[in-house]
Design brief:
binds adenosine-5'-triphosphate, 9 helices, Nucleotidyltransferase, domain 5, 5-stranded mixed beta sheet, globular, alpha/beta, about 325 residues, 2 domains, binds magnesium ion, about 40% helix
Length: about 325
Amino acid sequence: MLILAIETSCDDTCVAVVDGSRILANTISSQTAHAHFGGVVPEVAARHHLDLAVPVVEAALAEAGVSLDDVEAIAVTTGPGLIGALLVGVSTAKAIAAPRRLPLIPVNHLQGHVAANFLDPDPLQPPFLCLVASGGHTLLGAVRDRFGHEVLGQTLDDAAGEAFDKVARLLGLGYPGGPALERLAAEGDPEAFELPVAMSREPGLNFSFSGLKTALVYLCRDLGPDGVQERRADLAASFQAAAVGQLVAKLRRALKKGDWEAVALGGGVAANGSLREAVAALCRQQGLRLKLVAPELCTDNAAMIASAARFAPHLPYPDYLSYDAFATGEAPVVA
Ligand SMILES: Nc1ncnc2c1ncn2[C@@H]1O[C@H](COP(=O)(O)OP(=O)(O)OP(=O)(O)O)[C@@H](O)[C@H]1O
Ligand SMILES: [Mg+2]
């Protein structure tokens, strides 16, 4: 089935055309306006989505070499995310689907991150354990089928990506900070500073990143501006080692508690080379299959939304006209 998918939950305007597990186009227009503010400004994001939605749909169709007449269903992220940004995507999806009487497929953004693993090349079949680490979430998901995932543990405060972004900002690296911090960390010593690997004594599968971020704030205060400048790479490397250390420790613990044969990653932090290497080493050690998708399928994209949509309920016209976006939690039940 040829699906056109729209993803506008944060600051990237994303449209994809996917046929089964095959990606025909995966177009992403990243908004640069937010760099000026050091983070995403929700109102600015929504306004940019309005400008970009139609041109990005046209670009994706052209890249895929298809027209709207070929499209059989429209998928869209309905939440969680920034409500104004989501509403632009949902309205665009309805406006394309309704006149053509096409079905609409609402998709949960986090299931999208999991479903990136169902795409070519080499789609992963459940069951598998999936670590999702992104800008707004960090969770361990038990993926037993392609329809959803059970949350086994999640962050109690900041998300891993949020911590990368905040520490990057502290080190003067700009926004988004994750990739820049990884590049700087490559030049530093991960053992230069001893930082807390949070939740290591807590027996559950939850995460916490706010203490690590605060430890960095105090460390930078003690070093002073010149000291921070001099030790930037060591600070980045030590932070990255502590953050990756916690993610891998919890993954190891979850593997011990279950009978898993395969592991997958999802979310923007899954693009981090140090995390990918550490998880690969763990899987080698335990004889487990590891699925790593390309970095551009880790950060927000619409191909992953189309992938989740293949296994989600299709709403026929006109049932979806009153369907709404949601900022947090689960999709509201529509009467
Ligand atoms: N190479 C990298 N190393 C570490 N972090 C990274 C890397 N690349 C991206 N990130 C982080 O990933 C996050 C973006 O991921 P993603 O697009 O999945 O988040 P989001 O959609 O904003 O949040 P959510 O999916 O929870 O709604 C940012 O916090 C970014 O800094
Ligand atoms: Mg995301």
